Amino acid sequence: MIKLSQQEVYHVLICYHCVNKTQMKQIAHYEREAEEFIVAMGNHYPITFYTYWDLYLCPVCDQVTLLKTSKNTEERDPVDYTLTPSEIILYPNVSLEDAGIPQKVRKSFEAAMRIKNVEGTLCAIGVRRTLEMMCKDKGARGKDLFHKLKDLSEKGVLPPIINDMAKVLRVLGNEAAHGDDRDFSEEVIESMIRFTHVILDYVYNLPGQLSGIQVKMGKSIENDEVLSEPGPYKQNITVSKDT
């Protein structure tokens, strides 16, 4: 990041509206600092977390990018001991934070999202490729993407409603792959992106989330049952009322 003055801050970023790597001007900034204490070797010591949200303006297409930067006092550069920042673009949406999605599938989908505002046809091809990779990862059988998605639906990996949208994706994917003269509107591309995101979330993330909830609920029920059982220290006391 280059700070030219107290008022002006610039940062070199890739604008995923126009796919130009350029120096953008910061037009808004917000920061938050939080401190937490951890226990190590019987001692308490603090860790400070810093989070910054910055809005940058692209000088090429006049669109904005929202960047989130995170760092903390535990993660430092081994050479100069400075805090190691982690950056993620929140807008436009070009990345997935879902840890459950395989790396190859995630990277393919992120590549498609990065060009959705520039080349709709290539984005459609990227979405189709992502779904093909997901089908292969899940052992789907079929002669084409439609039949592979249908196979996963019949196996219960995907919900039955997926069949209706799969037909649309098959048509769009084939047209994009064969280079037909077809203009993909922004609305269509956004729908394909959202649909694919939902599929990936359903296949890779939802089962783990449900499993985690089930484990927590099981532990809570066990704890409630233990607390409700009379222990050796408890006595049954009968209160009688004279009539």
UniProtKB/TrEMBL annotation:
Residues 111-197 form the DUF4145 domain. InterPro entries: DUF4145. It comes from Paenibacillus pinisoli. This is DUF4145 domain-containing protein.
